[in-house]
Amino acid sequence: MTQADHGTRAETPFAQRLGRRVIHTEIQINAAPESVWAVLIDFPSYPQWNPFITRARKEPGVGGQIEITVRIPDGPTRTFRARVLHVEAGRELRWMGTLPVPGLCSGEHVLRIEPAGGGSRFLHGETFTGLLVPFMDGLLRKTERGYALMNQALKARVERIRPS
């Protein structure tokens, strides 16, 4: 996997010490944005292809709840409930998950599709904030690997079943 495949970019150590960390990955997909979106929002099919988000329940609507099970590479499998912040059909899905104790850790997750070079660029990231973030470096590095694995699996599935 090359830098161009997932374009990883993380926050500076100073920002991490302040309780904020951004994970950003991206990948080029040789299919139209509409094809990428169709696979991305087909939550019932996630167990068939997605190595990171192994389950997602409830169709997202702004303000609604979504339940997500993630399998972190070399880490735990966890189920989270999150509030849907933004849905722009064919372009972006964004949600916010928090730990039960406010201020410990929250994550704003974004899945975004942009037209690029006759295909699509899929941007996948999350901004983590809270008191625990400076102590989560190892877990967040594993999470970032999970995002890259999901990106590659999404690319493979879209290009296999929905070529442009």
Task: Name a few traits of the molecule.
single chain, 8 strands, 164 residues, eight-stranded antiparallel sheet, disordered N terminus, Alpha-D-Glucose-1,6-Bisphosphate, Chain A, domain 4, 5 helices, alpha+beta
Rg over CA atoms, rounded to whole Å, is: 15 Å
Report the major sheet.
Answer: 8 strands, antiparallel
CATH topology tier name: Alpha-D-Glucose-1,6-Bisphosphate, Chain A, domain 4
Q: SS-based structural class?
A: alpha+beta
CATH-level-4 superfamily name: START domain
Indicate the low-confidence ranges by residue numbers.
1-9
> Quick check: average pLDDT?
89
Cα shape: globular
Count of extended strands: 8
Order of adjacent strands in the largest pleated sheet: 1-2-8-7-6-5-4-3
Q: Percent range for helical residues?
A: 25-40%
CATH architecture: 2-Layer Sandwich
> So how many helices?
5
Kindly, what is the distance between the CA atoms of the first and last residues, rounded to a whole number of angstroms? Answer: 23 Å
Taken in chain order, the helices and strands follow as HEHEHHEEEEEEH
How many domains make up the coordinates? Answer: 1
The oligomeric state is single chain
Could you characterize what this model shows?
This protein is an alpha+beta fold and 164 residues long. The protein has a single domain, classed as Alpha-D-Glucose-1,6-Bisphosphate, Chain A, domain 4 (2-Layer Sandwich), CATH 3.30.530.20. 28% of the residues lie in helices and 40% in strands. It has five helices and eight strands; from the N terminus they run αβαβααββββββα. The chain has helices at 3-6, 13-17, 33-40, 46-49, 137-161, and strands at 9-10, 20-29, 53-57, 65-71, 77-88, 92-98, 106-116, 119-129. It has an eight-stranded antiparallel β-sheet with strand order 1-2-8-7-6-5-4-3. The two termini are 23 Å apart. The model is unreliable at 1-9 (pLDDT under 50).
